[in-house]
Amino acid sequence: MRRPVEIRNAHFPGRAPIESYGNGGFRFADMSHRGSLLMLPSGIYGWDMVEGDPLTVENFHRVFDEAADIEVLLVGTGKDIRPLPKELKARFKELSISSDPMSTGAAVRTYNIMLAESRAVAAAFIAV
């Protein structure tokens, strides 16, 4: 008897640089992930966002949960830079998180550098 396929939330329990990105996903830690990612101090999580989705406070709840360990949040907004809404910027400021929106490619490169420098960085990458 076949067991049904179990769908689990994507989670990698550690920090790792992004090896490559594009074609709707990312490679890291010798693995590939299709879709967007949250790169947090507690690990790497699949993020249910696609290019063009609204950047709302609700979409960043996992980031807020780890705010004490994050100084900088890089937001890769897709192919193009999109400003963060005022209410989202205000929430980050309340939590003393510096937020910086940029294209996903620029965010990946910046994240890798800051991670290598052992900075308190997190990232939200929308897949391109």
TrEMBL record:
<dbReference type="InterPro" id="IPR007523">
    <property type="entry name" value="NDUFAF3/AAMDC"/>
</dbReference>
<protein>
    <recommendedName>
        <fullName>NADH dehydrogenase [ubiquinone] 1 alpha subcomplex assembly factor 3</fullName>
    </recommendedName>
</protein>
<dbReference type="Pfam" id="PF04430">
    <property type="entry name" value="DUF498"/>
</dbReference>
<dbReference type="InterPro" id="IPR036748">
    <property type="entry name" value="MTH938-like_sf"/>
</dbReference>
